[in-house]
From TrEMBL:
Pfam families: FBA_2 (PF07735). It comes from the Eukaryota. Residues 204-264 form the Sdz-33 F-box domain. It comes from Caenorhabditis remanei (Caenorhabditis vulgaris). This is Sdz-33 F-box domain-containing protein.
Length: 352
């Protein structure tokens, strides 16, 4: 016969160490046991400096709260999805008794709601209060779009990352949604859009400063849009940009435009490198090697060969067209100097 360990009777100093060693999902479950357990966790736990809280509301039937590199700690699901054969258990959340169940494999609590969005707001409030941490990232779809403003209204620190996901029942975002994400919402670092824009959508404003913009369907992006961007990483899928447009962008970068750029990718299909490099041959050097580029935002690409172009301030960019239909411009400093094989640009045939 085993006896229970009186955890909450342990002195505060060792108890704080125990709480810090526990995983966030276990702490959330424990916090519902009593007011004292909630108070102990809220008071004694010290957040890790690299912790990031993520709110996922892209699924209309289930949403979740997660910690980066740890996973889900609490989720909200539609009450229709709970089995009637399950033992009914409840916790007090958002001012009401909410039915809960433990995830069979991953062992975090699932809460059940008539309205998933209300549930997502309630569990978000609960977790940020328990751990005294701001939300860093939201992953939303059309049905949960208001979570961007809802989260930003509850904290002084703006969101670091916004991910907009299309759904099978709503593959296209609206003009108002696109304009809000690109122009108006408070987001300090990353904007990722996995959705189609309306057929006739045009963004008529200058882009605000954003570290990383990743747009999976970028047919709406014009050369004027591109010239107004100021980012570290710019990833444009399915664009209608031309080789001439990219030549204009390269000349813009050479003259000091988009000064923070480290990684640019545009999926444009057919590329004519003679047009891309028109007027730039005197400033270009062929490079034949292979290197792996990893951006600070997690994007990895292997570049095979390319052309180095150097700006007046000494900054070098490698321009590379890949068989996947992607034109890449990457920070030339990341190249491994031990494998460089630079050739004179008079060998222009190798560009094709």
């Amino acid at each position: 016969m085993t006896s229970h360990f009186p955890l909450l009777h342990v002195p505060n100093l060792p108890l704080a160490r125990i709480v810090d060693f526990m995983e966030p999902d276990a702490l959330v479950s424990m916090s519902f046991c009593s007011q004292k357990s909630h108070s102990v966790i809220k008071t004694l736990r010290k957040a890790s400096c690299d912790e990031r809280l993520e709110v996922g509301g892209s699924n209309i039937s289930a949403s979740s709260i997660s910690f980066t590199n740890i996973g889900c700690v609490l989720s909200a699901s539609n009450i229709a999805y709970i089995s009637s054969s399950k033992k009914e258990e409840y916790v007090k959340l958002g001012g009401q008794q909410v039915r809960v169940n433990m995830h069979r494999l991953r062992k975090y609590l699932i809460t059940y709601w008539e309205d998933i969005l209300n549930g997502l707001e309630a569990i978000t409030d609960y977790v940020i209060d328990l751990f005294n941490i701001d939300v860093s990232e939201v992953c939303i779809s059309k049905y949960s779009f208001k979570m961007i403003e809802w989260v930003n209204s509850r904290q002084t620190t703006p969101l670091k990352k916004i991910v907009y996901m299309a759904t099978a029942w709503s593959p296209c975002s609206s003009e108002d949604e696109m304009n809000y994400i690109l122009r108006d919402c408070r987001c300090s670092s990353e904007i990722i859009i996995y959705s189609e824009a309306p057929p006739n959508f045009r963004f008529l404003n200058n882009f605000r400063r954003i570290d990383c913009l990743d747009n999976s369907n970028s047919k709406w992006v014009t050369i004027d849009n591109l010239l107004s961007m100021d980012g570290i990483d710019i990833i444009l899928g399915s664009t209608t940009l031309t080789s001439t447009d990219l030549n204009v962008f390269l000349k813009h970068w050479l003259s000091g435009g988009c000064p923070r750029l480290k990684f640019f990718l545009a999926r444009i299909g057919s590329v004519n490198m003679f047009q891309v490099l028109a007027g730039l041959v005197h400033n270009a050097v062929l490079v034949v090697d292979r290197r792996d580029y990893t951006s600070p935002f997690g994007y990895s690409r292997t570049l095979t060969s390319g052309v180095d172009i150097r700006r007046a301030d000494g900054v070098t960019a490698t321009v590379c067209y890949q068989q996947t239909g992607e034109l890449i411009i990457a920070d030339g400093k990341a190249r491994d100097a031990t494998v460089r094989n630079r050739q004179n640009m008079s060998d222009m045939g190798k560009l094709q």
